[in-house]
Structures are given as structure tokens and as C-alpha cells.
Design brief:
single chain; mainly alpha
């Protein structure tokens, strides 16, 4: 018998002893057989109480085991959620790094575009200047041709 049950058994037997002492005068008048029957009935009652308490402890133990199992499952679910959140945070971090890299590349492309536009505008200015020179030469050629045609 487990040691932890002894105080409970003593708590149950104590009222029996008290009852017996109170009624000791009546018990002395009883026959030995009656005294044995009374004590036996009291012991049976005490054992029934102990059995009920043991059953209640068993039910509590089962209930606690179920509660522990539910808690373990909840902890496991939380672990899955934590892992999922960690993966999501990592993906978001990678996405942020990609956005930063893409933004830097976009700024670089815009700088290249501005530089190329500047060169293009310079070339257009040069083209306009050369077209103006060409136009002047054509005018001179036309004048020379007119002079040559008149002299012929």
C-alpha cells in the first residue's frame, strides 16, 4: 500500500475510533459477535470510502492526463506556427533585400538613361549644327552652279 494513502486511511479510521469510544459503554453491553459485526461494518464503510477516494483520484489522474495531452498538442501546434512564421519572416526579409537590390538597379538604370539622353541631346545639337552647315554649303553650291550656268 502506498505510503501517501496512510494519512487518508488514518483520517477515515479516526472517526471510527471516536465513534467506538463514545459508544464503548453500549459496546461493552454488546456481545463479542455484535461488537465484531459493528466493527466489521465500520471497516467496510471505511474501505468503501477509501475505494471511492481512490476512484476519484484515478478519475482526476485521467483528467489531468487528458489535459496534459491537449496542452502538448497545443504546444506542438504552436511550434508549427512558429516555424511557419519564421519561414514567412525569412521570405519577407529576402523579398525586402530583393526590393532594395532592384531599387538600386532602377536608380542605376535611370542614371545611365540620363547620361545617354544627355549624349543624345549633344548629338542632336551637333546634328543641327552640321545640317545648318550643310544647308549653307548647298546654298553656296547652288550659287556656284547658277554662275556656271550663266557663263556657259
Amino acid at each position: 500500500m502506498p505510503y501517501c494513502l496512510l494519512p487518508k486511511i488514518q483520517n477515515v479510521l479516526q472517526p471510527i475510533d471516536n465513534y467506538y469510544r463514545k459508544h464503548s459503554i453500549a459496546a461493552k453491553q454488546m456481545t463479542n459477535s455484535d461488537q465484531f459485526d459493528t466493527r466489521f461494518n465500520l471497516l467496510l464503510t471505511a474501505f468503501e470510502r477509501i475505494t471511492q477516494q481512490i476512484e476519484q483520484l484515478g478519475q482526476r489522474t485521467d483528467s489531468n492526463a487528458r489535459a496534459i495531452e491537449q496542452t502538448n498538442q497545443q504546444i506542438k501546434q504552436l511550434g508549427h506556427r512558429i516555424d511557419s512564421n519564421a519561414r514567412a519572416i525569412e521570405a519577407l526579409t529576402n523579398t525586402v533585400h530583393e526590393f532594395k537590390r532592384d531599387r538600386a538597379q532602377a536608380y542605376s538604370l535611370m542614371a545611365d538613361l540620363a547620361q545617354n539622353q544627355s549624349r543624345m541631346y549633344g548629338m542632336m545639337a551637333n546634328l543641327d549644327e552640321r545640317q545648318e552647315q550643310l544647308s549653307q554649303r548647298q546654298g553656296e553650291i547652288v550659287e556656284i552652279m547658277k554662275l556656271l550656268t550663266k557663263s556657259n
